[in-house]
Structure formats: C-alpha cells, structure tokens
Amino acid sequence: MIVNWINGEDVGGRLGEYLEKHDPNTGDVQSWVLNSSNADVDVAVRAAQEAYLSWSEKTPVERGSILTKIAIRMEEEASELAEIVALETGKPIQDAEGEVSGAVLQGHFFGGEGLRMFGRTLNSSVYGKRTFTVREPYGPAALIVPANTPIANLAWKVFPALVCGNTAIVKASEDAPQTAIFFARLCSAAGLPDGVLNVIHGYGEQCGNYLVNHENIKVISFTGSTAVGKKIAVSVAPRLVPLSLELGGKNPFIVCADANLDNAVHWAILSCFSNAGQRCSAASRVLVHDSIEEEFLEKFLVRTKKLHLGTERNCDLGPVLTAKHHANIRRMLEEAIVRGAEILCGNNFTPLPEAINGYYIAPTLVRGIEQTDPINRQELFAPVASLQTFTDPREALSISNDSVYGLTSAVHTENIGLASWFTKHLKHGVVNINIGTFGSEPQFPFGGYGQSGNGTREPGTEALDVYSQTKVISFSAMADL
Ligand code: NAD
User: What number of other Cβ atoms are within 10 A of residue 331's Cβ?
Assistant: First the structure.
C-alpha cells in the first residue's frame, strides 16, 4: 500500500480508495496506490502553506545546502533508488542507474544555484537612483510529472522549485508512485523540513485537476502530454497563475547524403528505441537522403535485430509503461498497416516468453506512409519510428518543421555549413548535430517550440525564472557632499 507523504509522514486517505499499479514486465499487480480525494489534496496544500513562511525566509544559500545534502544522500542510496525506478518502469537497470545519476547531478546543480542566486543591477536615468532586481518565491507549487523517467522528472522540478523558496506538492504519476515516495522520504532524512515537499497520489484527471485549480497553489509546473497540458492551461487561466508546460514531441532525425553512416545509425537507434521510445525527445521520424536509403536501412536493420528486449542488466529496452498504452500502440500500427504501411522491423508485441503478459513492443520501423498519416503526426511515445526520404536539405527541413510539435531534432552531416543552416532553420527548442535527439543535462535549458510547451525552459538557470518572480528595488540615495 502506497499512501501520501505529507508534512514529513505517511498519510492515508479520507476515502481509503486505492488504485492498482501493474508491473510493465509481467502485467501483475505491483502495488496498491492511494487514490487521493479532494480533502486529501487540501491536507497536502495546507502543509505546504504552513511550511512556506519558514522555508522562504531561509537564505537561498541555506536552502541550497539542504538540496546538496539531498543529492549526496541520493548518491548513497543510488542502487536502491535505481532498483525502484527499474521495477516501476520496466527499464533495464543500467538505464535506471543512468537516470539516477542525472537526477543527482540535478540536485548538485540547484544546490549550487543557492550560492549563485542572481538578480541584475540596472542603470537609472535619475541621478543617485540605484536599482537592482531580486528573485522571490511564489508560495506552494503544484508539480506534476509523468513516469517515463520518474526520478529525473522529479529532480527536474523539485530542486529548482525548492531552491527558489517555494514549497511543493508533487502529484506523482500513477505509474511510478514508489519512486516519488522513496525520494520524498530520502529528502526528509537528508534534512528537508517537514511540509516543504509533499507527495500525493491518484488519478491525474481527479486529484491532479483539483490540485492545479486549488486557490492556494501559486505556481504550476507540468510535464506530460500536450493534450493534458492544454486542459490545464485552460482550466487555470482565470486565476492567472504562473504555469510552465513541458509537453510532447514528434522529433525528426535527419541523415544527409554525406553523413557518417555508422555514427548516424548508432544514434538513430538510440534515439528511436532507448527507454522504449518513451522520451519526449525520442526520434519518431527518421528522414534519410534518398541516395543512401538502402545502405542506411541495411545497417539500421542489422543492428536493430540485435537489440535485446527485457529488464535484465544490459538489455537494450524494456516494455512500455501500461497495458492501455500498449494496446493503443498496437492499434495505431494495425491501422497503419491497413493504410498500406510497410513494417520494416518490429510488429511483434510479445517477444519474451517469460513475460508474455508484459507490455512489450519490438523496435519498429515503418515506411510507405504519408506525411499526414497519424504515425507521422501524433506522438506515439513508443519504440516506433517512420522512415521517409528526401532529395534536398530544404525538403528535409520542410518535413521536419511540418508538425505542431517543436521539441528536439538531430541532423547528421559532415558539412559544417549545412549543419549550421539546419540549426538556424529547424523550429525546435533543441537541435543536435551528429548525436541523438535526446541528451539534456542539468545546466541546459530544455523545452520546445510550438505545442511542445508554452515557452518556459527547465532546468538550467532558466528554471529559476519558472519558480521565482522578479522584484525591482530602487534606492534614491546619494550623499550631497
Ligand atoms: P499525461 O499527460 O497523461 O500525464 C502526465 C501527468 O499528468 C500524470 O501524473 C497524470 O496523472 C497527470 N494528469 C493527467 N491529467 C491531468 C489533469 N487533468 N490535471 C492535472 N494532472 C493531470 O502524460 P504521460 O502519458 O504520463 O506522459 C507522457 C507524455 O509526457 C508525453 O507526451 C511526453 O512527451 C511528455 N513528456 C514531456 C517531457 C518534456 O520535458 N517536454 C518530458 C517527459 C515526458
């Protein structure tokens, strides 16, 4: 039984309703998770409000030093944390370990931001007027995260929110509740005062929706699908509460005629299939110059067929997160086949005899579909990509930018001028040359153009702008000597 974490302790629900969380690898029930009622959310928000005054009164340096202690504790408990992440998501353990390391770095980065928390000095036109800016927190923050990289997603939001002096209520993903609770307990054990970080569980459309619309929530940061992000934006608009949206992607991976093909294939496979394609930054449209299509495809298929599915160490990818998502991907592929899609690899949904009920999708590459086909339009969030060809870089650019999303892209070419041209014209928040479509780091701002977000960037120092508001202070002070 997994319950809420409020004011530094486990708190059960008023209604006592629980939801089932299933093991993606087997389909078996893995845990029972509290389905929070509105009254349960109220308790968490109250705790965050009560903790706010003393937390926000601490200096950023003090807050940062507590975050650094949390990061150190995460390092000490990294193997247990990685095991929980792997178990809840079904990803191979080395991927979970990598994710934990990234989350630890995030803690160190924002711990350090406590020392650096900066404003600006401004010049005034008025003689003797000294003007500067300071950052101030908002109050209790609602932080909503998905389960694809659960500990990274938590670290991505909790550390910058707290260093800025906000308190927080995390609405954990239904699909990774244990990771959130383990993290909250660890924060407490590392010295985070009670009530500064609270975790609630339950369905997003119920308790998540109630949380973001709570009058005492003063800032909201949401990572998830564009559809849900839009719903939240509409529902909270009347309160004019600051909102950061980190949403979906339909990311192109462009291979030019002069690309180093082995390197391009290596990164294309990682971009399309690692983490079972469940990354906002996964490549789902592979665009290859038509002169190298056959050579690229041959190398791509040879290497893809060697990928191992499973949750064991050194497997390449595990299952997708839920039965519902698995069924949805199968349906999308079956419908695409009816429309004439050629499946170049994959189309195999139960590759592991010992995990026959697990939510596996073999790495799939699809060809022969229109640019307007749902497979090329909708975010699949799965190890599924389409292959398209182009004859001219302008055509590759036009296909790449033909999407409501604009999160990430990768271009493979040995021509620095061409690479530079793509970096100027691609309409994405992240453009990578000769690597993958993913690969964010704590010090990099991440976010998308178009419907991949609402213009905010997290993490990096840019995240401080999400979680703090600016006050301009002026002194008219000059001795008349
Ligand atoms: P989702 O939008 O279904 O759910 C995300 C979270 O929102 C969950 O915790 C869910 O419970 C909650 N939620 C659902 N409805 C809600 C509502 N009405 N009000 C408040 N909360 C609600 O997304 P998902 O399927 O869990 O995650 C996959 C999506 O996340 C993909 O679109 C992916 O691209 C995106 N994502 C984006 C980034 C990024 O940084 N841009 C990173 C990771 C994942």
Answer: 10
